[in-house]
Design a protein that fits this description.
Layout: H1 8-14, E1 44-45, E2 48-49, H2 55-66, H3 70-83, H4 90-103, H5 107-120, H6 125-137, H7 146-166, H8 176-196, H9 200-213, H10 220-232, H11 236-249, H12 254-275
Antiparallel strand pairs: 1-2
Helix pairs in contact: 2-3, 3-4, 4-5, 5-6, 6-7, 6-8, 7-8, 8-9, 8-10, 9-10, 10-11, 10-12, 11-12
């Protein structure tokens, strides 16, 4: 299946999961521990409080987070993780790199950094959804490890949904619509991999939830995949409705528009044939 789902909305909505950027670029600004008071002013990523424990750790963190060259930033973050193996700030740095690599359309490095985040912070909703979404987009029905990929996608996306539904992940600055949009991406990843694996009913269920939850930035590719899942089950009327929605939404996405129009045409022809005496 052609990989057509955009992750731009995920980056935009979840940008505030990372601490604020400096005027110079990407660097968030935690405060170092105060050796006198023992009470650091601590930054938050998602709902977790994290801070540098020493001035040396803080300086190394800022240097890594402020590096604009991607290759140097990658090296600096890995160097930081080696020098400060107990630092809570490692996951923040890897999340930052993950987001930057996704914006640069480097899927391999996005996944690499996402896995590093999850190794340090298994409940990072941002990383759970990014990894499951990117992995779903890079999965094909001919992959020898299709089942392994499916298991990872379903595990990560389901955990993200659970954290949101339980209230464990509920940043104060997020509206309910924004949380629903984030959760919709988890369902979209599930639906995508189920569609690839020809589990059409499961794909329909997840993709339908994704479309219902995402009122802020509806994804034409998700509507297209929902149409295909229902088409496979011979639910042609509902499939045509979804295909029409995909066409309507994809004016600015020519690849999606082409595929959605082809699906729409096919379904209209089926409807005409069925209606003919």
């Amino acid at each position: 299946m052609k990989r057509i789902l955009s992750l731009s909305a995920l980056v935009l909505i979840t940008a505030s999961l990372l601490p604020a950027q400096t005027s110079g670029g990407q660097a968030p600004q935690p405060q170092p521990a105060n050796p006198q008071s023992g009470a650091p002013s601590q930054p938050a990523t998602e709902s977790k409080v994290k801070a540098a424990k020493t001035q040396q750790e803080y300086a190394a963190y800022l240097a890594a987070a402020s590096e604009q060259d991607m290759a140097k930033a990658d090296a600096a973050v890995n160097d930081f993780a080696t020098k400060f193996p107990e630092s809570d700030l490692r996951s923040i740095l890897y999340e930052q790199l993950m987001r930057r690599y996704q914006q640069a359309n480097n899927a391999d490095k996005t996944l690499e950094m996402g896995h590093k985040v999850l190794a340090l912070d298994p409940d990072s909703v941002f990383a759970l959804i990014m990894v499951s979404s990117v992995l779903a987009e890079r999965t094909n029905d001919t992959d020898l490890d299709l089942q392994q990929r499916r298991d990872e996608i379903l595990k990560d996306s389901s955990r993200a949904i659970q954290l949101i539904d339980s209230g464990a992940f509920k940043p104060a600055q997020f509206t309910s619509d924004q949380l629903n949009s984030i959760k919709s991406m988890a369902y979209a990843a599930q639906g995508t991999v189920e569609l690839i694996g020809k589990n059409d009913k499961a794909a329909e269920d997840s993709l339908r939830k994704a479309t219902e939850l995402n009122s802020m930035n509806p994804e034409p590719a998700v509507w297209l995949r929902l149409a295909i899942a229902m088409d496979h089950q011979k639910k042609y009327g509902d499939a045509l409705t979804a295909a029409n929605r995909a066409v309507q939404l994809s004016a600015n996405e020519p690849d999606v528009l082409k595929m959605a129009t082809q699906e729409q045409t096919r379904l209209k022809q089926l409807a005409d044939t069925k209606a003919a005496p």
